[in-house]
Amino acid sequence: RRPAATNLYVVTASPWNAHGNGVGDDTAAIQGALNAAATYGGGIVYLPGGRYHLTNTLDVPGGVELRGTREMRGGCGIWPDGKSKASVLEPYEGQDTTNGPVAIALEANSGLVGVNINYETQNTNCHAFPAAIQGRGANVYVIGVNCPNAFYYVDFDTYTCSNHLIYMVDGWTMN
After folding, report:
1. CB atoms < 10 A from the CB of 25, how many?
2. What is the mean pLDDT of the chain?
């Protein structure tokens, strides 16, 4: 069951103030909004178009949805003006290992919708990374997510993820 939009948290607004510029670390700001949503009974944490630099795991609590700008599949979202119209998560933590922190952890009854995940250091060399998305319980969902360069994309096997949904998820893995 997806959360109602009655509790909507925008990560670029106060008090979280995520940069969304691909440079400043946005991990704490986004996690703060996710935690606030969980504290106040769940809801949607919205990422406006931008590039969100991540240096650790985003842990999406139960009853919370992390949502980007689109629910349908799409490309990288960089337009001719150089601005990202898509919500792009850029994980950096765990490079050159597969047993470090995952980029996005979905706790039971949570979801991820409408984001792109892009590993900026995956260019001419292939780097190992932990899973981009990891489910950690029942009733997790991933909808309309694009990741063109994950080493290990979706992990719904380490933890039991019964009754999960993966829909319109594009990309490929390098592993």
Report:
1. 15
2. 89
